[in-house]
Amino acid sequence: MDAEFFADGDRVAVLTTEPVGVLDYRAPADGVALGAFVACPLGPRRVAGVVWGPGESALPLERLRPILALPDAPPMQAELRRFLERAAAYTLTPLPAMLRLATRAPGLWDGPATRRVLHRAGASPVRLTEARARVLDVLDAHGGAGLTAAELAAEAGVSGGVVRGLVDAGTLSEALAPRDAPFARLDPTRPGPDLTGDQAAGAALLRAAIAAGGYGTTLLQGVTGSGKTEVYLEAVAEALAHGRQSLVLLPEIALTAEFLGRVEARFGARPAEWHSGAGGADRRRVWRAVARGEAGLVVGARSALFLPFRDLGLVVVDEEHDTSYKQEDGVLYHARDMAVLRASVAGAQVVLSSATPSLESWVNAETGKYARVRLSSRFGPAELPDMRAIDLRAEKMETNRWISPTLARAVAARIEAGQQALLFLNRRGFAPVTVCRACGEQIGCSDCDARMVEHRFLRRLVCHQCGATRPIPETCPSCGVEGRMAAVGPGVERLAEEVAERFPDARLAVLSSDLFTTARALKDRIAAIAAGEADIIIGTQIVAKGHNFPALTLVGVIDADLGLQGSDLRAAERTFQLIRQVAGRAGRGARRGLALVQTTQPEHPVIQAILGGDDEGFWRAEASGRRMLGMPPFGRLAGVILSSPDLDSLHDFANALARADAPLRAIGAEVYGPAPAPIARIRGRHRLRMLVKADRRAPLQSALSQWAGALKPPANLRLAIDIDPQSF
Ligand code: ADP
Ligand code: ZN
Questions:
Q1: Is ligand 1 within 6 A of the CB of residue 539?
Q2: Is residue 314 a contact partner of residue 239, using CB atoms and an 8 Å limit?
């Protein structure tokens, strides 16, 4: 067994967050624990790392440099170290890059968790200058204590000398205080709501699994509004009662406000929040509280999976089908898979919650790999919305109008009745295409294989791949003809224009991620809509995610065909999930909802499945299609993206790689491509993609790293391997 502690002068191996990875150092005078977070010298710099094991270097001890600093934090536990190693191996990510995900607490190495604060000690000094009086006023305003000398001087607008003078005079004295405010404890003994029969059965199953200890995954499959959140909060209660920590992942920060409120109502205190938008001090505070086991529940974005939980008992992945759980740059991982991996290492339970599970999770529940809890009806009197298609071929559509007469009548009726309507169009901006009517030229991004999208609120064209913007041209950049540029097709902004014309008295709310500069602004807008401060809501896919708008009774899907185009094998699954989720926003209050789906192909099997409500039939059909093709989840896929600014050397390397496929053939894998990637150029880099398909049990990762590691790519070429790519 490895040593758990290294004494003064021992050789220790430190995994750094630098590309060099593991380096040997000398333990400091007070020794150092296995897993300790440390700062080490690397050349002239100081780098972060974690003590990973005994050092193995043959260098004489005096040549090894000593570890410099230890933050006041508990060592990383064996569980997290194992998880990082396994996650690195699974995603083919270098271990230092994985460690970086687990050390994103700024200021962790910046000194102790306590700080010297000043408080009132004696009477006011005899010589009470104006500056001194201001210092005392500031301190009194803070309740007489709690600020450091520097903070006090800054806030009072005086020099440090004035504050020191008060200390010397005995008016103020110094004491140590914890640096971070503690988290309030959540109380699991508070009574929850009375659960329905289905809910109670589900909660009992989850509670029993947590009480028994050990790893397991349960798919919590329930229609929108059936009480999935109530049920998994029971699992959180059980974990809290056992002194174990829970993590709830949400796909969208805008959803946290409502969730925090529900947790507070249930457990009497708010959970810790973790997301990359949080400030450094907040993240540091949460990180420490998690490491010490003081935070019983963390709600966060996918990066919360890498927090140093002391005793993780439960991970909930809410809306587990959501595409935002896949991290698409840097370290490529899927939060759902990583949740399962982390829990299996930690001996924790996983709850995957969704009304429209991913096909992967559905299949795993069917085969018994996951347990399943079903909630088949909405809570209380609320019923699932009535779903109907509007056949656009039979409607009289006006040019450059996207709302059919039938849908317009339905919207008018809701407004008349004082209810809300939501129009869903999964396209940001005003118009997806800007075209010259003289020559037919479409304005594209100069660095990407993508059209520029007109954003009228910004008065600019924007590339959705690289973010580049430019003014909307008056003159065609190709033929030079003036005044013939036209916006083609609808985006949410254009839809908003149409709605404003048709319903001039209605209050509109447009929800699109690009229209909000901060998460807080989006949260506030959503809360305002829920409170009834809008009549018509127009939104992109952010409206599909779990929001609760009680007065909303009508959902109109502007273009259901949008997601069904293209060759992606996941298109059907995605469209089904998205439209079902959006429709699920309707009728969550007392009145029954209606969802109207505009389409030119009402007979399409996916549209039929959405309208017919035979969810199980849909998944069964999808699953059998995938099984026949050996596609995920029945086979495994890896995407290999090669990119370079130079197309010729890119092709040469890709072809050479394709010919060197012996390691892949050895495991029976098939290689498709190289072919242009779904987006063939981004930020000036050409992109080719290969797909590798293997049997589920084949050792795909080791074959891939052998294969990709055998050829040395030219200097400007990047190779990224995406295990389990989300589009194929
Ligand atoms: P889901 O997560 O499945 O969409 P929620 O847990 O958000 O469903 O429940 C929908 C609504 O019904 C929420 O307002 C919730 O508070 C309420 N609700 C669900 N179950 C109960 C219950 N047993 N008692 C009281 N209210 C409930
Ligand atoms: Zn671009």
A1: no
A2: yes
Predicted confidence band of residue 1 (pLDDT cuts 50, 70, 90): very low
319 lines ligand 1 (CB under 6 A): no
Comparing CA positions, the residue from 348, 309, 121, 117 lying closest to residue 218 is 348
Burial of 563 (0-12, 13-18, 19+ CB in 10 A): buried
Would you say 668 and 694 are in contact if contact means Cβ atoms under 8 Å apart?
yes
Pairs from 154-162 (Cβ < 8 Å, separation ≥ 24) = 156/131, 158/131, 158/134, 159/131, 162/129, 162/131, 162/132, 162/135
**Strands 685-695 and 718-723, sheet pairing:** unpaired
Q: In this predicted complex, what is the ipTM?
A: 0.98
d(CA 228, CA 320): 12
- pLDDT category, 503, cuts 50, 70, 90? very high
Distance 172 CA to ligand 1 centre (A): 53
**CB contact at 8 A, 473 and 442:** no
The pair of structure tokens assigned to 110 is 């910046």
**Taking the model in full, what pTM does it have?**
0.87
Residues flanking ion ligand 2, Cβ below 5 Å: 445, 447-448, 463, 465-466, 468
* Other beta carbons within 10 Å of 137: 12
- Is the CA virtual torsion 149, 152, 154, 157 positive or negative? negative
β strands within 328-465, DSSP E: 333-334, 349-354, 371-375, 386-391, 420-424, 433-436, 452-455, 460-463
Q: Where are the beta strands (DSSP E) in 124-254?
A: 145-147, 172-178, 216-222, 245-249
CB of 454 closer than 8 Å to CB of 472? yes
Helix (H, G, I), strand (E, B) or coil at 187: coil
Phi, psi torsion values for 604, nearest 5 degrees: -55, 135
Separation CA 579–CA 574 (nearest Å): 9
Q: How far, CA to CA in Å, does 584 sit from each of 33, 57, 365, 448, 546?
A: 51, 60, 23, 36, 8
**Phi, psi values for residue 315, rounded to 5°:** -125, 125
Instruction: Specify the 3-state DSSP secondary structure of 410.
Output: helix
As a whole number of angstroms, the distance between CA 613 and CA 249 comes to: 28
pLDDT band at 122 (very low <50, low <70, confident <90, very high): confident
Q: What is the mean pLDDT of residues 317-340?
A: 93
> Considering every ligand atom, which ligand is closest to the CA of 469?
2
**Nearest Cα to 8, choosing from 71, 74, 73, 66?**
66
**Would you say residue 343 has pLDDT above 50?**
yes
Task: List the structure tokens of 14.
Answer: 């430190």
Tell the residue number behind the tokens 């201001």, with chain if given.
Answer: 134
Q: How buried is 20 (Cβ within 10 angstroms: 0-12 exposed, 13-18 middle, 19+ buried)?
A: exposed
Provide the 3-class DSSP secondary structure of residue 555.
Answer: strand
Highest mean pLDDT out of 61-70, 142-151, 173-182, 691-700:
691-700
Hunting for tokens 């003809």 — which residue is that? 481
- Is the shortest distance between the CB of 229 and ligand 1 below 6 Å? yes
Ligand 1: does its nearest atom lie under 6 Å from the Cβ of 413?
no
Q: Which phi and psi angles does 82 have, rounded to 5°?
A: -65, -40
Provide the strand spans (E) within 240-348: 245-249, 272-274, 297-300, 312-318, 326-327, 333-334
- 504 conformational bin, left if phi > 0, alpha if psi -120 to 50, beta if neither: alpha
DSSP letters spanning 597-631: EEES-TTSHHHHHHHH--HHHHHHHHHHHHHHHT-
Distance 226 CA to ligand 1 centre (A): 6
* Closest approach atom of ligand 1 to CA 231: 6
Contact 429, 453 (CB under 8 A): yes
